[in-house]
């Protein structure tokens, strides 16, 4: 097999709540994760050892890269000497709360599973993925899922109806996920998402899910970076029917009724120094 291509889709959090601190030091979370169409391309071909290349010069391609770590983990698990070149064509914003690195790692696990003819089931890949990061198990299949534990305990949900949205990330702004979780304080939460009701209304989609959405991590990231609140307000003012920060940030997404409204929302952000994309929610991989 000469070459394998995988698509690595970004994710957003339709709802993110923190239930408490775990004995292992992680936070117990309850969240609805959703794949969106913005994606990276991962191309696997023959190489020497594990080689990573990328279209972005400012992304490390060494052993600290999640794609590299995923390849090394799978090779070690299956007792394979890896000789692969992994090319990352990145379009997902970096350090954005969109699981770009996690999705690339998941794509590497899926792709090498095919490239090496391992025939591992998705649940086996998810178990390996959990050793690398909390978002990576979700990214193996994606779609719409309830995530609990530290994010690795997944329940597949019926795909929500296709929904248009705008993504916006302040250019050059990076937020440390570890810092956000470390500084989270339940006492600052005014509105927490109602995850079980959000799950119940997902089939309807659209404005039906809005009352139950929310992200408690906004209480940490927005005070430190007020531009996020300004972007949310601009999206709502331009016609988005809901806007929320994804993950620990700093990316904001705005849900819209149609593509034309999404274009107006994107246009309304020209006064901000942001990376933007118009995309839709997407369903789970077959």
From TrEMBL:
Matches recorded under InterPro entries: GHMP_kinase_C_dom (IPR013750), GHMP_kinase_C_sf (IPR036554), GHMP_kinase_N_dom (IPR006204), IspE (IPR004424), Ribosomal_Su5_D2-typ_SF (IPR020568), Ribsml_uS5_D2-typ_fold_subgr (IPR014721)
E.C. number: 2.7.1.148
Name this polypeptide is given: 4-diphosphocytidyl-2-C-methyl-D-erythritol kinase
Domain GHMP kinase N-terminal: 65-143
Native source species: Phascolarctobacterium succinatutens YIT 12067
Primary enzyme class: transferase
Role of this protein: Catalyzes the phosphorylation of the position 2 hydroxy group of 4-diphosphocytidyl-2C-methyl-D-erythritol.
Ubl conjugation recorded as keyword: no
Primary gene name: ispE
GO biological process, one term: terpenoid biosynthetic process
Family of this protein: Belongs to the GHMP kinase family. IspE subfamily.
